[in-house]
Design goal:
InterPro entries: DUF7800, Metallo-depent_PP-like, PhoD-like_MPP, PhoD-like_sf. With about 525 residues, the chain is of the alpha+beta class. It has two domains: about 80 residues; about 450 residues, 4-Layer Sandwich (Purple Acid Phosphatase, chain A, domain 2), CATH 3.60.21.70. It is about 30% helix and about 25% strand. It contains 15 helices and 23 strands. α11 packs parallel to α15. About 50% of the residues are buried.
Length: about 525
């Protein structure tokens, strides 16, 4: 009998349609609420995305998954969690977006502390519909391909033996597929959550490899390794299947030529996907991973700040030219709120921002060729690769968000907020200048879901958040020729170093954020709240 390997994952949902993603152990037809789809095959794995149609706005519809007519979900005898339900938005209802990043799973020894995503799932299972989220945003590091737990290490040992390269890291698509199953199936609560809450994702470096696309020098070093091609091809290809496809609306998937080619391949489409993945890595302009979703009067823009980087010698940009043009077009007024989700924080603690400004300039030769190599080594060793390390892109983003906040691209929203993770602590930063005649601009960081900083790194970041360090580091950046940032900001809440999950709550022109920390009892405790709108 055909079995369910992973899923169901409830992905894109709008007022009348929903996408349900599954992986099965053999080719079959997958059915959900009368809609069906045949599986397609990639590297011996079988997948389907079922597009459920004709839903009513504001409806609550329990669903089952059938494989070749046989029910496989909910699993027989499962009574711990409510039925999986597709909820469509009712016009005018409040928006609740839950988000976080950086989740190590599974973690059988509890090394990484309580899982905020699991704690949220348990609470949601026992809550009333009034607390139900509109969507879950997973903003980077959904899996850790280079920091492996014992389960995936055992799988690799059985598959390719001890000591084979890359040591302590994934090698190809097959190992990525196994890691996704461990991350999203091991905990029954999280598996249920992903089956019943619409989920949107974007990758960060650990979804592929630590420091992914830090610089041109980093890319040259990695491509010189004999095992890197299989690794990057497997990482991008698996991301396309396990994460990206579900972000798309039915109309967007229908227009995706790669999706069409994979489905009509007739056999195993692994080679088709591998060719695309290698091309996407070498030419960022040939693929777009960023996307936009509108929730009533709220616009969400999920920005790829990893694969879209332009790293040609002499020119660094967080986004290639076509991606930047696309993003500028999405950042406009006419919405009550504008949310920009980037795995990497746009507004870091100011001392770190200035340090990354300085390092980019030095690595680029501002203090001569002799120190450029030292600057590059520092960049890779200290992860100096955020928006501040792409100073031209930082300025372009500032120009765009200020134009929106001032009402220069249509009626100004009540708030503009960046949603980010990556840094393994949570905080709120607010822009303090220029603010005249502009909507409030904020940076909301929630990280990690489950992967706390070790003690020395934690105290280093506590120190970096102190305002006194910013001035001397700004002077250092100025000495390297870096102009003053076009914005001023300060941290107003945090930093918190717990495993955390955050909720953006929107009602009309009001927008607030709430951070909650996972406790030792598998519960959530509120750490802080703040208004994001005026």
């Amino acid at each position: 009998m055909t079995e369910l390997v992973l899923g169901p994952l409830l992905r894109h949902v709008d007022d009348r349609t929903a996408t349900v993603w599954v992986e099965t152990d053999r080719p079959c037809t997958v059915e959900v609420l009368g809609s069906s789809a045949p599986t397609f095959t990639v590297h011996g794995h079988h997948y389907a995305l079922v597009e459920v149609t004709d839903l009513e706005p504001g409806s609550r519809t329990p669903y089952r998954v059938l494989l070749d007519g046989r029910p496989v979900w909910p699993e027989p005898g499962e009574r711990r969690f409510p039925p999986s339900v597709i909820r469509t938005r009712r016009p005018g209802e409040a928006v609740r977006l839950v988000f976080g990043s950086c989740r190590r799973s599974p973690d059988p020894g509890g090394v990484h502390g309580p899982d905020a995503l699991s704690a949220y799932a348990h609470r949601l299972a026992a809550s009333e519909d009034a607390e139900w989220p509109s969507a879950l945003l997973m903003i980077g590091d959904q899996v850790y391909a280079d920091e492996l737990g014992p389960e995936i290490e055992e799988f690799i040992h059985r598959r390719r033996g001890a000591g084979s390269e890359p040591v302590g890291e994934l090698a190809d698509f097959e190992e990525y597929a196994h890691l996704y199953r461990l991350a999203w199936r091991t905990d029954p609560a999280v598996r249920w959550l992903l089956s019943t809450v619409p989920t949107y994702t974007i990758f960060d470096d650990h979804d592929v490899r630590d420091d992914w696309n830090t610089s041109h020098a980093w890319r040259e070093r990695m491509w010189a390794l004999p095992w890197w091609r299989r690794r990057i091809v497997g990482g991008i290809g698996s991301y396309w299947i396990y994460q990206h496809l579900g972000n798309l609306s039915p109309r967007e998937r229908a227009a995706d030529s790669l999706y069409a080619a994979v489905r009509r391949a007739g056999g195993d489409a692994g080679e088709i996907l591998d060719e695309f993945a290698e091309r996407a890595d070498k030419d960022p302009a040939c693929a777009r991973w960023s996307f936009t979703r509108d929730f009533g009067g709220t616009r969400l823009v999920m920005v790829d700040s990893r694969c879209a980087r332009l790293l040609t010698p002499g020119r660094r940009a967080m986004l290639d030219d076509s991606e930047q043009r696309w993003l500028t077009q999405q950042l406009r007024g006419g919405f009550d709120h504008l949310l920009i989700a980037s795995s990497l924080p746009y507004l870091l603690p100011r001392s770190i921002h200035h340090a990354e400004n300085w390092n980019e300039a030095v690595a680029g030769g501002a203090w001569g060729r002799a120190l450029a190599g030292l600057g590059e080594r520092m960049r890779q060793a200290a992860d100096l690769e955020h928006w501040a390390a792409f100073e031209a892109s930082f300025r372009t983003m500032a120009r765009d968000v200020l134009a929106v906040a001032r009402g220069e691209r249509g009626p100004a929203p009540a708030s503009v907020a960046f949603l980010s993770g990556d840094v393994h602590y949570s905080y709120l930063a607010k822009v303090t200048a220029p603010v005249t005649g502009a909507a409030p601009i904020s940076q909301v960081v929630c990280s990690p879901l489950r992967n706390p900083l070790a003690g020395p790194f934690r105290w280093a970041n506590v120190l970096a958040c102190k305002p006194g360090l910013a001035a001397p580091l700004r002077a250092l950046a100025a000495a390297a020729g870096v102009p003053r940032p076009p914005l001023k900001w300060r941290i107003t809440r945090g930093p918190w170093f717990d495993n955390m999950i955050a909720t953006i709550e929107i009602s009309g022109r009001d927008c607030r954020v709430r951070w909650e920390a996972a406790t030792g009892g598998g519960r959530l405790a509120e750490r802080g709240t703040a208004a994001l709108s005026a």
